[in-house]
Specification:
alpha/beta, TIM Barrel, three-stranded antiparallel beta sheet, 14 helices, 11 strands, Aldolase_TIM, flavoprotein, oxidoreductase activity, acting on the CH-CH group of donors, detoxification
Length: 345
């Protein structure tokens, strides 16, 4: 495959990549729309069964849409019973309006159907698989590569980038601190100093010698141009797609992104036990100081509360994931977002 570096890596006409926003925001319709506009869309497999992912794969493949799939790398249990129970009791009142007993919720750890999804993607290969939250095991990586799939790992530091390179991946996603949603840091207990996207891209490109996609803080075409100039092969866009016609983001989330009273984003672990950037709200203000690390256990603890609050239009109990460029998220088609971001290239 020849041409621009993003064409050689992803087969796309432009360097814009639709982020795999798990939890419902990145729908198959959004993946199709980004790709149809010349970008490259990623389907999120996080929080979903292998059967549900398989249905989306079949639907996209039937349309002839090239796309990638993102997987969450499972980690060990993240929290002990005593710490979990103390936090569950602390936030118990937040669930009461929805009839939820958060104080008595079970401590739940899972691997997000890891083996089933690897098996699925080996049987039904896609062009690219990306990994978030750590490094995949060598056997899974080898099986995907034998199937003809290119592999990418999200990194937040040069050290993580070098570890991924040494494992034998085909490329990296350098996620800066401005990115919305979960940080892809490999060990939240020992994070590197926060790094802005542009210098992180520059340093990772220089150190690792692999294609690097840039993720975090994209607000307009100038950011795409600057990140490409810093050495990025492509630029991942998430928050700017959240209010588009094809997005699956719920109405409460969409409205909050446009609410002038929402003036800042913060990094929080209060909702899921893993650092993530979102719009500041009162749940974060009340509970962030006491929130422990503990993913996915805290994710399971607050999941039903967040879903009920979103359905009820209560943004202060919802994880309003957003990057620092959220003010530039507009309604309309995803194609218009992709075309606008690439107009100056």
């Amino acid at each position: 495959m020849t041409g621009e570096p993003w064409t050689r890596l992803l087969g796309s006409a432009t360097p814009v990549i639709g982020a795999p926003m798990a939890g419902g925001a990145s729908t198959p319709a959004l993946v199709r729309a980004v790709t149809a506009a010349g970008g490259f869309g990623f389907l999120p497999a996080g929080y979903r069964s292998a059967e549900a992912v398989a249905a989306d794969l079949a639907g996209l493949e039937a349309t002839g849409t090239p796309f990638g799939v993102n997987l969450f790398v499972p980690g060990p249990p993240g929290i002990d019973e005593t710490t979990f129970r103390a936090y569950a009791r602390r936030i118990a009142a937040e669930g009461e309006p929805y009839g939820l007993d958060l104080a008595g919720a079970p401590l739940t750890h899972d691997d997000d159907h890891w083996s089933d999804k690897i098996d699925l993607l080996v049987r039904h290969p896609v062009p690219v698989v990306s990994f978030t939250f750590g490094l995949p095991d060598a056997a899974a990586l080898a099986a995907l590569r034998r199937a003809g799939t290119r592999t990418l790992v999200t990194v937040t530091s040069v050290a993580e980038a070098l570890a991924a390179r040494d494992l034998g991946v085909d490329g990296l996603i350098a996620q800066g601190t401005e990115a919305g949603g979960h940080s892809g840091v490999h060990d939240p207990h020992q994070p590197a100093s926060p790094a802005s996207t542009r210098p992180l891209v520059r340093d990772v490109v220089a150190a690792a010698g692999l294609p690097v996609l840039a993720a975090g803080g994209v607000a307009g075409p100038g950011d795409v141009r600057d990140l490409i100039a810093a050495g990025a092969t492509g630029v991942v866009v998430g928050t700017l797609l959240l209010r588009t016609d094809e997005s699956g983001a719920n109405r409460t989330h969409r409205d909050a992104l446009a609410d002038p009273a929402r003036t800042t984003t913060v990094i929080t672990r209060a909702f899921t036990g893993r650092p993530a950037r979102g719009l500041r709200n009162t749940f974060i203000d009340r509970h962030e100081p006491a929130a422990p690390l503990g993913y996915p256990e805290l994710h399971h603890l607050t999941r039903d509360m967040r879903a009920a609050a979103a359905a009820a239009g209560h943004p202060d109990r919802v994880h309003l994931w957003a990057g620092t460029g959220y003010r530039h998220a507009r309604t309309g088609s995803a194609a218009a977002v992709v075309e606008g971001l690439t107009a100056a290239l």
